[in-house]
Design brief:
Blueprint: E1 5-10, H1 14-25, E2 32-37, H2 44-50, E3 56-61, H3 68-76, E4 85-89, E5 93-94, H4 99-109, E6 113-117, E7 131-136, E8 139-144, E9 160-163, H5 165-171, H6 182-192, E10 196-199, E11 211-212, H7 237-243, H8 247-266, H9 290-303
Parallel strand pairs: 1-2, 1-4, 2-3, 6-10
Antiparallel strand pairs: 4-9, 5-11, 6-9, 7-8, 8-10
Length: about 300
């Protein structure tokens, strides 16, 4: 079986990135990892260059940050047709060593499941949307019941997420036209494909994969501190990231695109397949609003670098 593809996109926060990468690589799981640094202003890229593991297949530093979705889609464009695709955020430390095997056990037991994620942990409030416990042959997961459009948290979180190849054949890429990430992907899967989505959790909402989402660590606890050249007084890897983290204002400004996108889906003006600028073939025969996508990327370029 072809090893799954792990997409890893980072943006500043060297301390969390180093911690996260170590947790992924300190396992015997088989995978092919592709790392993208979205023009970090701290010393993240210097650290990434130092990390060696035969499972890391590519390391790219983008010359400019155009937002999380284009970087994610750049990695997705490299996936081979038969590969499962996993994306892990740079603030996630995965404590369960056989986490990929656990994902695959659920995927193999429930062929109707196309999208699986891991519930967020503190400091985020771990609130589940409406879910239905599913069990088969001793394997369990929580199926998302609705996946409604424009309902807070009624989606599978993208912090640690896996996608089935057959689902990717149906949906293509994350939408660059909306750049709403997991809040866009889940309702597209749930309402416009034949696949189910859900959480890696047992019937009692206990996680099948244990993650740590600590959002800040002190410099003394940073395993990559030898690579850091910041003064650590006026500038830390966290303060640099916070200055250019614009996901929230982006969502507020461009929510209308998200709503219009799903209106077009509901009216049959487009299919659930989303194209990407990184895949010319994906553009053939599929709707792609270049003006929307370009405006989204420009917003990140102008405000997130």
């Amino acid at each position: 079986m072809t090893p799954p593809f792990i997409s890893y996109v980072t943006f500043n926060r060297l301390g969390l990135t180093a911690r996260s990468l170590k947790s992924i690589l300190d396992t015997t799981e088989d995978f092919e990892m592709h790392i993208i640094d979205s023009n970090s202003k701290d010393d993240t890229w210097e650290y990434i260059q130092s990390v060696e593991d035969p499972r890391i297949k590519s390391k790219i530093r983008l010359p400019i940050n155009a937002g999380p979705i284009p970087a994610l889609n750049l990695n997705l464009s490299k996936r081979r047709p038969e590969q499962y695709f996993f994306t892990v955020d740079c603030d996630i430390a995965i404590k369960t060593k056989d986490w990929i095997s656990r994902f695959m056990k659920v995927f193999n037991t429930f062929p109707e499941v196309g999208l699986l994620g891991v519930q967020r942990t503190p400091p985020y409030i771990p609130i589940y949307p409406e879910v239905i416990p599913r069990s088969r042959d001793g394997v369990t997961y929580l199926e998302l019941k609705n996946g409604h459009v424009d309902v807070i948290l009624d989606f599978v979180h993208g912090c640690c997420m896996g996608l089935r190849p057959e689902l990717i054949d149906t949906i293509g890429y994350w939408s660059e036209e909306t750049c709403w990430g997991d809040a866009e992907l889940t309702p597209r899967v749930m309402n416009h494909t034949g696949f189910k989505a859900g959480y890696m959790s047992d019937g009692n909402k206990n996680p099948l994969i244990d993650i740590d989402m600590t959002q800040t660590i002190g410099c003394e606890a940073c395993i990559a501190r030898q690579y850091c050249k910041l003064d650590k007084i006026g500038n830390t890897c966290f303060s640099l990231r916070n200055k250019t983290y614009i996901n929230v204002p982006f969502v507020n400004k461009f929510k209308w695109k998200y709503l219009e996108f799903f209106k077009e889906l509901q009216e049959g003006k487009r299919t659930p397949y989303c194209a990407s600028i990184y895949d010319a073939k994906s553009m053939e025969g599929h709707v792609y609003n270049r003006e929307w996508a370009s405006e989204n990327m420009s917003y990140y370029i102008e405000n997130g670098n």
